[in-house]
Amino acid sequence: MLNIVIFGAPGSGKGTQSERIVTKYGLSHISTGDVLRAEIKNGTDLGRTAKQYIDQGQLLPDELIIDILASTLDGLKDSKGVIFDGFPRTIAQAEALKQMLAERGQAVSVMLDLDVPEDELMKRLLLRGQQSGRADDNEETIRKRLTVYHSQTAPLIDWYKKEGLYAHINGLGELERITTDICAAIEGK
Ligand code: AP5
Ligand code: MG
Description:
- By secondary structure, the protein is of the alpha/beta class.
- 57% of the residues lie in helices and 14% in strands.
- The chain binds BIS(adenosine)-5'-pentaphosphate and magnesium ion.
């Protein structure tokens, strides 16, 4: 089983690169952000709760998102592994993921840290906001998302370094070059 954590700040390319590598490795893709946006679209209770956090650029409470992740994982069809996109985002979530996989006789294979300078992140997300209009892609909410990333999510870099699973990826530049670097990191593990 190949279980990949794709990690990075908002706009670093987690979703874009996940799409490019799922087929190549026969993986399932879980994006917690996509799961939540689908709930919002379907007007569920969970969607209504999620919207309050997403619109403020804040993270959902750990217990709630961990439950969502667990049931999404249980609902997956057979695959050669999973790419986790946007989860974990806190140390508590990383510990929960480790335990959840251990209960299934599995583990995280590698954590890919897509590293992109902040001015480029802002540029990408503002552009997407103009084009496709994700509700949280406006300057004020993007700034909050970046602050939350630095305070709550970036500490996972050291956590995964200690686990011996960390791989740095330069996330700035051509999509194809980034994908090549990701594949090298996956195959080097
Ligand atoms: P989530 O949906 O995960 O959003 P995010 O982390 O803010 O990241 P994005 O999806 O915006 O960016 P991405 O890294 O996927 O980049 P993308 O490939 O799209 O989370 C949204 C919200 O949900 C959170 O704020 C929180 O409220 C909640 N949530 C989700 N998970 C949670 C959790 N675990 N715990 C608690 N709450 C949670 O690329 C971005 C743009 O850049 C695109 O337009 C793309 O075309 C472009 N682009 C990509 N690569 C390149 C490149 N190399 N060069 C130029 N442009 C590029
Ligand atoms: Mg995404």
